Amino acid sequence: MAEQLALYPGTFDPFTYGHRDILERALRVFDQVEVTVGINAEKETLFTTEERTALIRTCTESLTGVSIVSHEGLIVDRAEVKGASALVRGLRQVSDFDAEFRMAFANRKLAPDIETVFFMTSEEYALISSSMVRDAHRWDGDVSKFVPPPVVEALDRKKTFHDD
Fold first, then answer.
1. Distance between CA 76 and CA 65 in Å, rounded?
2. Which pLDDT belongs to residue 160?
3. Which of 49, 63, 99, 110 has the fewest CB atoms within 10 Å, measured from its CB?
4. How far is CA 76 from CA 34, 40, 107, 119, 159, in A?
5. Rounded to whole angstroms, how far apart are CA atoms 36 and 33?
6. 137 labelled catalytic
7. What does the alpha-carbon distance between residue 44 and residue 5 come to, in Å, rounded to a whole number?
């Protein structure tokens, strides 16, 4: 039986414990999960694509079956090229469902053979978002409960750099 590959696409700016939780859940279902870091020239990010990719690699090095790549373009095109059977999406709250629902239908129209699989995040991560982490950190909030230590360190380096 062929190994099942899923892609877990996102901006991951920055990678949170909630993202890791969804990744770990996906690894229970799929043999391989590619974390696909989206490149979107129109979206301003705190971390560069290279920084986000490196941070995720550091934060997931203890997990088996994970690869991390960056991708610009339609995620279903990447999924088809890689032979992935599914796209992994995380749901934190009801408000996530509306946007994810529409995206899943659009992806199904573009690539009918690629399924979208939704994973509910663990309760303790339901209120964590990358934008909340960036905002809390900007105002000197302790974000160590929301993101892995390498991300806290990277955020601190960014803040130091921008404060100068």
1. 20
2. 63
3. 99
4. 13, 15, 7, 19, 35
5. 9
6. no
7. 29
Catalytic one of 52, 78, 130, 137: 130
pLDDT digits (tens, 9 = 90+) for 36-94: 999 987 888 999 999 999 999 999 999 999 999 999 999 999 999 999 999 999 998 88
**Annotated catalytic residue within 25, 52, 92, 137:** 92
Of all helices (H) and strands (E), which one includes residue 38?
A: strand 32-38
Among residues 28, 43, 109, 162, which one is catalytic?
Answer: 43
pTM of the model: 0.93
Report the pLDDT value the prediction gives residue 161, as an integer from 0 to 100.
54
Map out the domains of the chain with their CATH numbers. Answer: 5-163 (3.40.50.620)
Is residue 92 part of the annotated active site? The answer reads yes
C-alpha to C-alpha distance for 35 and 9, rounded to whole angstroms: 6
**pLDDT exceeds 60 at position 145:** yes
